[in-house]
Amino acid sequence: MSNDYYKFIHFINRKTGIDLSLYKEAQMKRRLTSLYEKKGFTSFMEFFESLSKNEALLEEFLDRMTINVSEFYRNEKRWEVLQHKILPVLLKENKKLKVWSAACSTGEEPYSLAMVLSQLVRSSQVSILATDIDQNAIDKAKIGLYGERALAEIPPVVRREFFTDQGVFYKVSDEIKRLVDFRQQNLLNDLFDKQFDLIVCRNVMIYFTEEAKDKLYRKFSESLRHGGILFVGSTEHIFNPSKYELESVDTFFYRKLSSSS
């Protein structure tokens, strides 16, 4: 079984550029075994043979491989810290912030950022890059339709201002959608832009190996300007931030140290 799996991840890397060896093996193997068994396959290699010939199955595989669980204002108290403590300091330093939502899933996180920022500055001062490995997730994000559950933690005043009721769904306002630029990106392989004021990457690192996490924290640090902030998820404390030229400024918020620090 293991040898079968390792051959599978090697072939997938060659076909798609996605390195599954950087994801925690037990979790990924469980997820993919469940998928191929459901489709009637008996091994990883039999599954790969079919993936090579069936574009729709490959799309489904890529969608299953990525983890698209998200909601607006996830862990609401952290968003309050972002709005009232972190962003005012950043806005004193730059009137227009360079912001990136990394592994943005179906758009709840970057749209939350856009809503928070639009309450602090004019929309002309807001521009957010949002990236994810899963093109299907990005396509859903661009549509901007969400069920009730995704909106559970949104403050009522924000919900009223930025959403319209569409029956069983809620639609993000065009004003907010215009502030976010969605692009496909592989965090582990692709180059990052530089000089971000704020990078948000939450509840993604838990799926990666320690080696992959280390690589990503280094890349994020290099992409922040001095004084810029990295905002991580509630299970993703960085236990030795100085290793990445970062310092903790609040729970789950880390500032890039200046060279003189």
TrEMBL record:
SUPFAM superfamilies cross-referenced by the UniProt entry: Chemotaxis receptor methyltransferase CheR, N-terminal domain, S-adenosyl-L-methionine-dependent methyltransferases
Protein name: protein-glutamate O-methyltransferase
Superkingdom per UniProt: Bacteria
UniProt source species: Jeotgalibacillus marinus
EC number: 2.1.1.80
Location of the CheR-type methyltransferase domain: 1-259
Keywords: Methyltransferase, S-adenosyl-L-methionine, Transferase
Pfam families: CheR (PF01739), CheR_N (PF03705)
Catalytic reaction annotation: L-glutamyl-[protein] + S-adenosyl-L-methionine = [protein]-L-glutamate 5-O-methyl ester + S-adenosyl-L-homocysteine
Ranges in coiled-coil conformation: none
